[in-house]
Every structure is written in structure tokens, then in C-alpha cells.
């Protein structure tokens, strides 16, 4: 294995989620296609060392719980300045949880949610 290629996210409102991931979080679009046979959009986003695949499907089921559902718990994005990113999200109307410190790495982090309540984390890394 060589690493993570992509992470797939199914959203309930494609345009709303596309705006969130591209305009608020700032991930550039690599490609976007309408898949007629599935009545589904697929948008590949450049997330640095991996891609995010954003999908729409007719009537997807909701996430069972937050954040402790079995399976993928959350996505964590590395940032260099947590305070700047939290302020940027707040200015866009996105609420973040209080900043905490990882007791094992002593790094600061916080959680917020995408439009479908998928838990997302900002994790501060060195320069």
C-alpha cells in the first residue's frame, strides 16, 4: 500500500455540499461529471495528498449517529494555524467545537460538521 487515494462522501444536497467543500473549505475541483445511469453527480476534489469524491444519490440514508457510528468516524484535515482556520469558518457561519489539545501529541484540534453533519476535524501541524 502507498497511502490514501480518495475518500468518498455521499451528500443529501449536492450543490450545497459542493459549495461547502469548494468555497468554504477551499478544495479545488479536479473533475466533475453527471452519471446519468445513476442519476448522480461525482465531483473529485484535490485535498492535497488525497482526493475527496463528493457524490449525490437520490434519497441516501442519514448518518446513524454523530460521531460514534461504526465505520469511518470522521475526516481530519491538517492546518498550520488553527486559530486562523477557526476564525475563517466562523466568518462563513460554521460553528467549531472548543479547541482541545491531543494529550499524546500535544497538538491542538477542533471539530465541526459538513452540511450533512459528517464530523470533520482540523488538526494543527507544524509548518
SSE topology:
Blueprint: E1 6-11, H1 14-24, E2 29-35, E3 40-46, E4 51-56, E5 75-79, H2 82-91, E6 100-101, E7 108-113, E8 119-124
Parallel strand pairs: 1-4, 5-8
Antiparallel strand pairs: 2-3, 3-4, 6-7, 7-8
Structure commentary:
- The chain has 127 residues and is α/β, with parallel strands linked by helices.
- The protein has 2 helices and 8 strands, in the order βαββββαβββ.
- A hairpin with a 4-residue loop joins strand 3 and strand 4.
- The chain starts with 5 loop residues before the first strand and ends with a strand.
Outline of the structure:
The chain has 2 helices and 8 strands. It has helices at residues 14-24, 82-91, and strands at residues 6-11, 29-35, 40-46, 51-56, 75-79, 100-101, 108-113, 119-124.
Amino acid at each position: 500500500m502507498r497511502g490514501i487515494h480518495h475518500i468518498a462522501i455521499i451528500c443529501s444536497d449536492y450543490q450545497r455540499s459542493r459549495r461547502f467543500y469548494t468555497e468554504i473549505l477551499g478544495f479545488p475541483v479536479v473533475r466533475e461529471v453527471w452519471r446519468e445511469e445513476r442519476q448522480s453527480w461525482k465531483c473529485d476534489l484535490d485535498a492535497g495528498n488525497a482526493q475527496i469524491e463528493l457524490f449525490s444519490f437520490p434519497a441516501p440514508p442519514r448518518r446513524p449517529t454523530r460521531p460514534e457510528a461504526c465505520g469511518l468516524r470522521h475526516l481530519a484535515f491538517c492546518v498550520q494555524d488553527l486559530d486562523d482556520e477557526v476564525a475563517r469558518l466562523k466568518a462563513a457561519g460554521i460553528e467549531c467545537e472548543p479547541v482541545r489539545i491531543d494529550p499524546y501529541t500535544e497538538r491542538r484540534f477542533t471539530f465541526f460538521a459538513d452540511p450533512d453533519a459528517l464530523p470533520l476535524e482540523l488538526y494543527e501541524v507544524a509548518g
